[in-house]
Amino acid sequence: MDPFSRKLLEELEQMQQHTGRILRSMSLSRMMPMESDGWQPAVDIYEAENHIYVYAELAGVVGDSLRVTVDGQQLRISGSRQLPPHQSIACIHQLEIELGTFQRTLTLPSAVELEGVESTYTNGILVVTLPKRIRKGKVTIRITPGE
User: Fold this and answer.
1) Are 113 and 75 contained in the same domain?
2) Is this prediction's pTM over 0.90?
3) I need a surface site. Which of 6, 22, 124, 143 has the fewest CB within 10 A?
4) Same structural domain for residues 77 and 12?
């Protein structure tokens, strides 16, 4: 492949990655939060054969403020992020970091076993591992005659 084509492909890959970041940050649930006035952390959900994995980007959130709740097929992540106080600010040039409380409720792609849910919080990333509910065997349903 000639150098021009290689450079063109690299540029297209970078554009694709940048576009993906833009689309993720513009998700409807983040633009129009329905459940709280707080900010909405970015979340990725992956499904494997036996588990669902949820990754939440929570840089700067103190682990003690985090709460993870599972109810049916709903996962709720909540907490708070604050910056350290600054003593001598004279002017603000840019504000992009969202602060304060947050709550994010997600609908999971399948039912989960509540007893096996685990979570870890490392380097600003919360990982919630949810074992999928596995239905075993065959069920025969008796049909009763109607009136």
Assistant:
1) yes
2) no
3) 143
4) no
